[in-house]
Specification:
The complex is a heterodimer. In chain A, 4% of the residues are buried. The radius of gyration of chain A is 26 Å and the shape is rod-shaped. The longest helix of chain A is centred in the N-terminal third of the chain and has 33 residues. Helices cover 48% and strands 13% of the residues of chain A. Chain B is of the alpha+beta class. The chains are: A alpha+beta, B alpha+beta. The interface between A and B is large, with 32 and 42 residues.
């Protein structure tokens, strides 16, 4: 084999290094994309709708998100009222326009074709996966 | 004593002690003695013995120094004495006893290609102070810099096997520094040194020595002086190139200026340092890629080690800037000395293997080989870039994030120059669906009550009746210019007659033409492939109360009416515009009305899903008439750009009740005359366009482009 010179040693080392680097990059980039997708408003909304609202126990949502109700409403009465309203109807949601700065996204819960509730969500945290720094 | 060990005595103006030394050597059993008369004057010639079968005297007419005399003797032995097995060098002033010379010669047995030094003990009281101090100092320097523990670096009593003589002939130096350089060469070439203790003899306080304290000390320490000078020259070169690079490239490179200038400066200064060290400090004979590679293999990690250690220690000690500088000085000094040792023993080491490997490689390097390897390297580098880009693109298109895929596709489709890219990786139907989805608009209706109230003191710090606001959003940098009086806003045109216009105008030309205080880019123009000349606008255009262009195209229309109210409407006709008393207006692509007031209701035309991110320009107006001009940076690593919904979000938060999107991308520009002076912004941090009045950071690799229309802000009337 003729490729024992220093040039080819460096050349093939560089190619091997690139291949390893590319694989590492694709793994890191893939996990970054997963995290990015999971943080999208649609995904957050969907999880809220499916896990919290459609579970039937709407009172749990009230407790979880610290929603104030009148002292005459109990968890039972809220669940019963919600079940009555949603019986045989489809629960959907739509993300809506900006209602106020930094209060996106907005969830419009719809029962059948009627808007049932509206909820504004405030960003809990912002995490920069790649911070390129500030110029100002 | 073996009769094939030659004694060499270099001598200059000897006295009678020379003959005694020669006699002593003969008595000790040495049979071959070579004396080199190093240019002695006539008065001292009688002290040289006559040549006979045991003694050879080589006369030199002029004095060339001890090192040169020794080389003459070495050369003589190699040429004329094939029986020689080794040599012993002895001073002719009686300082070296025949017994010590014999001991050194005996030590040659089994030493291979090593060297023997006859070392004196300098602790005795009879040792002259200057000799003691000189030897101690040199020993210390050798220990610290070279890692060589030699108790007597200046000894003249040395023994070498004859096989070492070719190497000794390659050592540089003709005077006393030759003996020092010889030791350095031993270190560089891995020659072993064996010490033999000898008697310390100083006759008459060493008065007969020809050692000149200043000149010869400088010669002996030349290697370290040159090493210091090499570093100093490189330091000056580094600073000078850094200054020049900052001066020449600083403005155009923006925030990367320091990094780029440092890299250029370090690249040039390192080449200077490498060459001086190779040729002047370590006297490495041959050029080789190996030395260069080893040099950078040392220099680059050393730079990071220095930076890392300084950062770490400064952090641990919570150092002030002054203390941090002291820490850097200490760390760099240590690295400086360690560096010398590594460069001597590794980077510039002249081992047999290095030499032969270098020669072997050089033989193979024909012009054809060089061309072939260059093409292979360049081709492979390009292929690597291509593979990397394609892998990343495929990951975006078919990976776990549909949001990023959609955003990237929309971004690419929005820019004329990159429109063709998405279909390389995705089917056209998928691309079309993404674009169609992004164009879906949801209309939200809010009331004027939803707006926050403007602070009463908002205009207290206004300049020129305007307020410049810097936005530092997570995804983009942006610039808002609030203009209190809408009467000051009009449309500036690049031509008085668009029908015959060949090209648009740059923003600086418009600023000059209208002598305006501020300006942003305006409406749409034909821009196929990003190569449009910006000669003619598209859609209905008004300037100064006149309809200056009407090509009949229906577009999103943004203009000020006779009451200075911003009208944002889709598909405005000339008749409708004239009826409203429109004075200044431009058009942009359909679907770019963002906010529209209808009585107490405010309609927000937000995108159903996220649109692409880009540089954006928009115009809006508050209910009180204040005009909002917005420009964002985009398509760069520190500001990927704003989406349509981001622009609506910003406009609402600044109180806009009417707003529309203007041309963006490479057209997005905001000009504000001398804003850096008005807002005390450090001008040196701005790029060349910003120093001319551009507020946003325009792409450095293109000129601000020529376009046909601008919204301009006239000077404040007081």
């Amino acid at each position: 084999m003729k490729t024992h010179s220093l040039f080819y040693k460096i050349y093939f080392s560089a190619v091997a290094l690139f291949a390893v680097g590319l694989i590492v990059f694709l793994f890191v980039f893939g996990s970054w994309l997963k995290a990015y997708e999971a943080a999208q408003p649609e995904q957050i909304m969907s999880a809220f709708m499916n896990n919290d609202v459609k579970g039937g126990k709407i009172s749990a949502v009230k407790d979880k998100y610290h929603i104030n109700v009148s002292k005459y409403e109990t968890n039972d009465s809220i669940d019963k009222a919600f079940s009555a309203v949603t019986k045989d109807k489809e629960l959907t949601f739509a993300s809506s326009a900006i209602k106020a700065r930094r209060l996106r996204p907005c969830l419009l819960g719809e029962i059948g074709r009627q808007q049932a509730y509206e909820r504004l969500f405030k960003a809990r945290q912002q995490k920069a996966l790649f911070d390129f720094g500030n110029r100002f | 004593m073996a009769n094939n060990i030659y004694v060499i005595i270099p001598s200059l103006n000897p006295d009678e002690k020379l003959k005694n030394t020669v006699r002593g050597m003969l008595d000790a059993g040495f049979e071959k003695i070579i004396i080199v008369n190093d240019g002695s004057d006539k008065a001292h010639l009688e002290n040289f013995p006559h040549s006979d079968e045991n003694i050879t005297v080589i006369h030199r007419r002029q004095n060339h120094g001890k090192g040169a005399a020794l080389k003459v003797a070495f050369r003589h032995i190699l040429r004329n004495c094939p029986d020689a097995a080794g040599v012993v060098t002895v001073d002719g002033d009686g300082q070296h006893s025949p017994q010590d010379a014999a001991a050194c010669a005996a030590a040659l047995d089994g030493i291979g290609k090593g060297a023997v030094l006859g070392c004196r003990d300098f602790s005795g009281e009879d040792v002259p102070k200057r000799s003691r101090m000189g030897n101690h100092t040199t020993s210390w320097v050798f220990k610290v810099l070279c890692g060589m523990e030699i108790s007597d670096t200046q000894t003249g009593l040395r023994a070498f096997p004859v096989s070492l003589l070719p190497l000794l002939l390659s050592v540089k130096g003709d005077r006393f520094e030759y003996e020092t350089n010889m030791l350095l060469k031993f270190r560089q070439c891995g020659v072993k040194i064996k010490e033999v203790p000898i008697e310390t003899v100083y006759i008459e306080e060493n008065a007969t020595s020809h050692f000149r304290p200043i000149q010869d000390s400088l010669r002996i320490y030349r290697f370290i002086i040159v090493y210091f000078l090499s570093s100093a020259i490189s330091f000056v070169a580094d600073l000078s190139v850094f200054y020049l690079a900052m001066k020449l490239l600083g403005a155009s490179l923006g925030k990367w200026a320091e990094l780029t200038a440092t890299a250029i400066a370090r690249a040039i200064s390192s080449v200077i340092n490498y060459n001086i060290n190779r040729t002047k400090v370590f006297n490495a004979d041959s050029k080789s890629h190996g030395k260069l590679a080893r040099y950078y293999a040392l220099a680059i990690p050393q730079m990071f080690i220095s930076a890392g250690l300084v950062t770490l220690v400064s952090h641990l000690l919570k150092a002030t800037p002054f203390l941090a500088t002291v820490i850097k000085l200490i760390i760099d000094t240590v690295i400086f000395f360690v560096n010398y040792r590594i460069q001597q023993t590794w980077v510039f080491a002249e081992t047999k293997e290095n030499k032969s490997a270098g020669k072997k490689n050089r033989k193979k390097l024909t012009a054809g080989t060089v061309v072939k390897r260059t093409l292979l390297s360049v081709g492979t580098a390009l292929a690597m870039v291509l593979v990397f880009v394609i892998s990343a693109a495929l990951m975006i298109c078919y990976g776990p994030s549909k949001s990023l895929r959609n955003m990237t596709v929309i971004m690419a489709k929005e820019a004329s120059a990159t429109k063709w890219i998405p279909t390389l990786f995705l089917p056209a139907s998928a691309v079309n669906k993404i674009i169609a989805d992004s164009e879906k608009v949801n209309v939200d209706v809010i009331g004027t009550d939803d707006y926050g109230k403007t602070a009463a003191d908002e205009w207290d710090d206004a300049v020129d009746g305007m307020k410049l606001i810097y936005l530092n959003e997570p995804k983009f940098k942006g610039y808002i210019l609030l203009v209190r009086d809408p009467k000051r806003i009009s449309v500036g045109t690049s031509s008085e007659n668009y029908a015959s216009a060949a090209a648009g105008a740059r923003i600086f030309d418009i600023a000059q033409k209208y002598n305006c205080t501020a300006a942003i880019n305006g409406g749409e123009f034909a821009d196929a492939g990003g190569q449009g000349t910006g000669a003619k606008p598209m859609g209905l255009t008004y300037s100064g109360g006149k309809n200056v262009w009407n090509d009949g195209l229906k577009r999103s229309f943004f203009g000020f009416d006779k009451n200075d109210k911003l009208v944002c409407r889709e598909g405005m006709t000339k008749a409708e515009a004239d009826k409203l008393g429109i004075r200044d207006a431009v058009c942009f692509q359909t679907g770019n009305v963002l906010i529209q007031q209808n009585g107490d209701d405010i309609k927000l035309f937000h995108a159903d899903s996220d649109t692409g991110t880009a540089q954006r320009t928009a115009i809006g107006q508050r209910a009180d008439g204040t005009v909002i001009l917005l420009v964002t940076d985009g398509r760069s690593v520190d500001s990927i750009g704003a989406t349509r919904n981001d622009v609506i979000d910003l406009m609402v938060s600044y109180g806009a009740v009417n707003a529309g999107m203007l041309d963006g991308g490479s057209s997005a520009m905001m000009y504000y005359r001398n804003y850096f002076d008005k807002y005390s912004i450090d001008k040196s941090q701005l790029d060349s366009y910003q120093q001319k009045g551009l507020v946003n950071r325009y792409k450095a690799f293109t000129n601000p482009r020529r376009i046909p229309t601008y919204f301009i802000v006239s000077e404040e009337k007081k």
